[in-house]
Structure formats: C-alpha cells, structure tokens
Write a structure and sequence with these properties.
alpha+beta, 450 residues, 4-stranded antiparallel beta sheet, 19% strand
Length: 450
C-alpha cells in the first residue's frame, strides 16, 4: 500500500528540479504556461483521478481508505449524529471488491476544460481491460465545484470489470477554456518512466546517491531514509501501472494513446457482486409498467430462487409498501399483496390490485437476494444514503458525506427522512425483521412517477 501522507511537502521541490532539468516534454511552442492534471494524494482533499485502483488493498482485494491515511471506525454507533452517514458510507465502500457501477470517473485539472476539445475516443480514452475493447459510450462534463473533468458512462459501468482511463495532453490533446494545453504533472512524469525510481535499491542503505531521482528529492531536511520512502511509494505505483494492469501498453495498443502523450492515466475495477442501480441522473429508477406492475433492472446474475415477496407472517426478500396507507394506520392497504419474478435482467413486482395514484410507494430488497454464485447483491451508493441513520446535510444545507455534492445530499435527505420514519418504527421492525444493513435497494416515489 502507498504511504501517501509522506508525499506532502516535496511536490514543490520536484517541480523546481524538473523545470531545471527539462523533465517534461518540450512545450516551447506554447507561449502560455500549460495546465496540468494534478496528482497529490496528500492534499486535502486528495488530488488524484478517482475512482482509482490505488485504493484497493492488494491483500484483501477490497477498497481500503487507509491507503490515503483515512481510518474508518469499526463501529459507527460511536460517532456523533452528524458523522453517522459518512461513517456508514465509508464502511459500505470498504466492504466492496471494486467501485460502484454508477459513479463518474473524475480527473482533477488546474483549469476548466474546453469540452469541445474533449473528443471520444481520441482525447478521452477508456478501455474495458476485462474484454480488451474500447468504451465509446461516454460523456464528458466539467465539475467546477471540484475543479475536475468528469467521465460518465452511458448506462453505467459493468460489474466485475476493470477500466483503464487515459487523457491525451500536450499539443495534440485537449485544451483549457483559455486555449492552453495540458501536460502531465511532475509525479505523473515519474510514473511514466521505464526504469526503477529507486534505481533498483530495495532499502535506504542500498540507495545510490547518484541515482537521478535521488537528486530530485535532495533537500537539507531530507535524509536517505526519507528520500527512499518517497521514491519507493512512487515506484510501487509505477510498477502497478507498468506491469499490474498493463495500463500504458493497453491504452496504446487498444486506445491509440501512447504514454508520452498522456496527461494522466489511471485504472479501477468495479465490484463483482450484482446490483440494482439507483441513480436519477443516469435514469436508473424503477420503471412503472402499468397500474399494478413495477420493474427494476439489475446488473450481474441472479439466483431467482432467492426472490420472494414479503407478506405478513411470511418472510420475504422483496417488499412493496404503500407508505401513504401505512401513515394512516391502514396495515392492509400499506402492505399490498404482490408477486415477484425475474426475466431479462429485470425484477418485476406485480400487485394483485392497482396501486393508488398519488400514494407514496416504497420498494425494498434485502441481501437475501444473491447472484448465481450465491454472493449477496450489494446496494448502489444512493441506497446507502437513503438508509443512513444520520443526516446527509448540516443546518446550512452542506453535504456531510465526502464525495456527495450539496445538491445531491439535499435531494437525498428528503427521502432519507421519509424512510427513517419507517425504518425506525419499532412496530414495522418487529413485523418485518428488517435491518438497515441488510437493505440492498430502497426507494420511495409518488406513484406513478418515479
């Protein structure tokens, strides 16, 4: 794992050294100072492309925020109320063997990108490394709040897939809104080297003072151990990019992006478990087929025998609730009878009677539903936010969950409050046996408009 917190403080010295030694390719043809795509895991918040396989613990194969110096509490109950949602969200992510399928990929930039120059697949190169093919159904957008370029897949990413990303920079690549080119940041220049950044040394004692990369980091306050530690961190990433996922060779061979033209590049895997996605921005919502039928699409495989409709006295893995009727203490109307089935990668909930227009209808699914290999479904990020015990925003409407924008958190908070009244109700809990952590899908909407 990468001890990225040690990286703080030496980026400036590297930059000065590289300017003096012409580390970066010749950019004299551009009279303006070029922009970069920063790479600094020690920044607060970290400046690096995300999601990234650098957060995957090589021992456990799961997401591990300790890589960037963040230690998630084992027990979220010990956290204050305004930190509960954040803690639960981090715990959810650290339980995955890859990243959620409905996240956008982002790369930090020093200036907004002119999206007219961000062509696909020439400048924005995405490779499905699992299948060895280009991904062209993507869209680019500029996130001014986080100063980043976002890459969003049409229909989301596939489960159990490793994706490689490369952004073309320099003279032939994308440009900023001011017309400036983008070049690789200093750390990325080092990550693109073909030789060991420690010059083959396995310890500080073996580090050759004449190694050119040692010269870059030499400073009065740095001893050999500190320099070796910094270089070995970067060397681990360099080897991962060069040999682990074969990042550079695949981007070149499949995507037509040679290493020396890349302003930045990274990779990440998606989780292998199946999922019912939930993302209104991408149109991932329940589909109302008719007055009594609702359909949920899913990704991955499913063991259809694990699907069962909840009824009073009979445990089930799928719930169809009329929250409007339940709020009026109408238990019979609040628990409509329905059948559940699966076909063509979609779960169908068919009520025996038409659902009432204007009523708040909720659909819940538990992790008793598994894929064909017996692995439980996992929730999408929005489901985790909706089932959260604590608030998603503070008194001023600011998000309390890292990575979730203020506007998204405000929108989700309204739904979370509605569902909390249900999930915190002791009578409902005793009738259903539901626990928040077991929910892999939860969504409520005013019928018939999801």
């Amino acid at each position: 794992m990468v001890g990225s917190r040690r990286w703080a403080g030496w980026g400036a010295s590297l930059a000065v050294a590289c300017i003096a030694t012409a580390c970066t390719p010749d950019i004299a043809q551009d009279r303006d100072t070029p922009e970069t795509m920063p790479f600094d895991p020690a920044a607060d918040p970290p400046l690096l492309p995300q999601p990234t396989d650098l957060l995957i613990n090589p021992t456990t194969g799961r997401i591990d925020f300790a890589v960037v110096g963040l230690h998630v509490p084992d027990d979220c109950a010990s956290q204050p109320n305004d930190a509960l949602a954040q803690c639960e969200f981090y715990q959810y992510l650290e339980g995955l063997d890859g990243f959620p399928t409905d996240l956008s990929a982002t790369a930090p930039v020093t200036a907004p990108v002119d999206l007219r120059t961000a062509s696909v697949p020439d400048d924005l190169v995405v490779v499905d490394a699992t299948r060895g093919k280009l991904v062209e159904s993507i869209a680019a957008s500029s996130d001014t709040a986080t100063q980043s370029l976002a890459i969003t897949p049409q229909g989301g990413w596939d489960v159990g897939t490793t994706y490689l990303f490369g952004i073309r920079g320099y003279a032939a690549g994308l440009r900023s809104e001011q017309g400036r080119m983008y070049v690789a940041s200093v750390p990325y220049f080092l990550l693109k080297r073909d030789e060991s950044l420690t010059c083959g040394a396995a310890s500080a004692a073996q580090l050759d003072p004449s190694c050119p990369y040692v010269k870059l980091l030499e400073a009065p306050d740095k001893d050999a151990a500190s320099i070796f530690s910094d270089l070995s961190d970067l060397e681990g990433i360099r080897q991962l990019y060069a040999y682990g996922d074969k990042l550079w060779s695949s981007l070149d061979a499949i995507g037509g992006l040679p290493k020396d033209e890349a302003a930045t590049a990274w990779a990440f895997p998606t989780h292998s478990a199946s999922v019912v996605e939930l993302n209104p921005t991408l149109g991932m919502l329940p589909q109302v087929v008719d007055s009594a039928t609702i359909r949920l699409g899913f990704k991955g495989t499913m063991d259809a025998t694990t699907l069962s409709a909840f009824r009073l006295g009979a445990p089930g893995s799928v719930f169809l609730l009329d929250l409007t009727a339940l709020a009026a203490n109408d238990l019979v109307g609040g628990l409509p009878k329905f059948a559940v089935s699966v076909a063509n990668h979609a779960i169908s909930l068919a009520a025996e009677q038409p659902l009432a227009d204007g009523h708040l209808i909720a659909i819940l699914m538990t992790n008793a539903v598994t894929n064909a290999a017996g692995m439980p479904f996992v929730p999408a990020p929005l489901t985790v936010l909706l089932r959260a015990r604590g608030p998603l925003v503070d008194a001023f409407g600011a998000s309390l969950v890292d990575g979730v924008s203020d506007s998204d958190a405000v929108a989700a908070e309204a739904g979370r409050k509605d569902l909390a009244e249900l999930l915190d109700n002791p009578t409902f809990a005793s009738l259903t046996g539901l626990e928040r952590e077991s929910l892999v899908y939860v969504y409520a909407f005013t019928f018939p408009q999801p």
